[in-house]
## 1
Amino acid sequence: MLTSDIRTDFWPFLPPTAGSTNSLTPAAFGSGQAADFGRSFGAPFELLLAQVLLRLLDRLEATSPLPPAADSTLPPPINRASLPAPTWIYPTPAPQPAEDSLFVPQPSSFSLAEVAAKQAYQQAAPAPAPAPVPTPASALTPAPVPANQSVFSVQSSVVRLKTDDWRLTTDSTPLALSDFPRPPGDNGRGMHWIPTTASTPEVVDRFMSALKAMRIKWVTFLNDGANIGANDYLVQQLKANGMEPIMRIYTPGLQPVSGDLGAAVRHYKSLGVSYFQLYNEPNHSIENDGRQPDVSRYLDLWIPAAKAVIDNGGLPGFGALSPGGEFQDTEFLKQAIDGLQARGELGLLDQAWLAIHNYQGDRATADTGGFSRFKVYADILQEKLGRVLPMIGTEGGSFVSGPQDEARRITLVTDAYRYMVNREPYNFAYTYWVIANEAGGAADPAWEWQALIHKDGQSPLVDALRELT
């Protein structure tokens, strides 16, 4: 409602001479309202109250102008529910978008760990980005580092090195791309492990063989907060088979990491884990407990977690943005970097990497709205930092609603893996979501149709990846 509409409601309470700035005359209204003017205003108290409220409206208009009224001549919004469902869909349990919504968060019933919401983006332009919001300074500090630990840390933009695996310099010099660990015989092929936070040795052995047959070199898996021990055997087998483990520190949405994160990083670093993804798709409401995404809230949690990872020998993952989130991924990334700078924490990115979710749908590999999303992020990083961070895909792929498009899907995914042979130096891995679900002990059937290996068979894509040279 406009302030002029509110003034109309106060008209019966005012005499012809009421006010100056907010004076109302019969000419301002229709003939019927003018005719009733002389006999409509009420008691002195009503008159005084109306004048006070109108003066408040003056001040509101002066300090915060209201937007113009909606144009009634515009056509009504499209009822998307009446449109046919697309054949090509991005990974989400319910592919049909809700009415008048470009990107719809879908609930997960996963009882062990809420895996990443897979609603990358439909066949539509990215959602508009909210306006930038100033980021307040953070008073958060990392947990104290135990004495005699082999760690490095960032304090006051100066890197302090204690013995570790990576070559570091002083004066907050960023790690070079060559300083980040890679697996032996690196080919850039990644795979997301079963969506559970723990696997039995029998499950690990079975699917380790499948990973080796597909020549996978990077594996992303879930760890329940700062839990220690549940993924020991998995990590040991990944390293023994020449694969680089990427641990996603699972939290139910944007919440503080439960437990001693520093201790967990030290433990898994000793087993061979260097990469720790912190939080997942923070630009999506489903990963914000249903709330609207907020850059400041994300940084409030990411900064202390990243410090704990760095101070205990690990490399923190930044981003893991959904190109289909309610908050546009590119704008979220820009504001997050600006927010780090405003808080004096930009140096954390000197030892960080960017997690990406480059789902492709039916787009060709060259399309920057799909597989090649990393090129858009690279431009943003170059603009904001003057350099590009390592990018590791921790989710990706192409999904179809029926067998008629399976051949096309196989072509798209194998093309993406082929691209990685001669990829950009910063583009470390492309990761397919997901190797298995129920066959690996996962409890949520929502991801079963996206799994490569099932209890009663496997996707033709498995053989195609085995044959891929």
Note: The two ends are 64 Å apart (CA to CA).
## 2
Amino acid sequence: MAKWVVYYIFLLKVSPFRAGMQ
């Protein structure tokens, strides 16, 4: 039910992190 919310927050945290690595 709230799984998509956790996934969305996960993307928000990982996206800047991966962008910083590249």
Note: The longest helix spans residues 3-21.
